[in-house]
Write a structure and sequence with these properties.
The chain is mostly helical. The chain has helices at 14-50, 58-74, 79-98, and strands spanning 3-4, 9-10. It has one domain: Chorismate Mutase Domain, subunit A, CATH 1.20.59.10. A hairpin with a 4-residue loop joins strand 1 (3-4) and strand 2. Helix 1 crosses helix 3 (79-98) and helix 2 runs antiparallel to helix 3.
Length: 101
């Protein structure tokens, strides 16, 4: 059995490498969805400006977060993790919506 000192991978690590490639592909898909979400948020920001609506709508975020936390509970994901992710996504959306492109 040989080991690549740079990566720590051995011949028997091919399963690990296959799994890491799956993680990488999943991460790529997540980033593509984040870009798509940002594009939608930009459109929402334009709509809100055109209709004199506030960019931040706290009740919408609270309802969305509550729904995502229920989903997390059903799927065995820690509520704190989901809350952190959703808050970061919301902050990004607010930032994008505030831009006047």
């Amino acid at each position: 059995m040989t080991t690549d000192r740079a990566t720590g991978n051995s011949d028997s690590g091919s399963e690990l490498e296959r799994l890491r490639r799956q993680i990488d592909a999943t991460d790529d898909a997540i980033w593509q969805l984040i870009v798509q979400r940002g594009q939608i948020a930009r459109c929402i920001g334009t709509y809100k400006r055109q209709h004199n609506l506030p960019i931040v709508q706290s009740q919408r975020f609270a309802a969305m977060l509550e729904q995502r936390l229920l989903w997390a509970q059903d799927n065995g994901i820690e509520a704190e993790t989901v809350s952190s992710i959703m808050t970061a996504l919301h902050d990004m959306s607010v930032s994008v919506q505030q831009r006047e492109d």
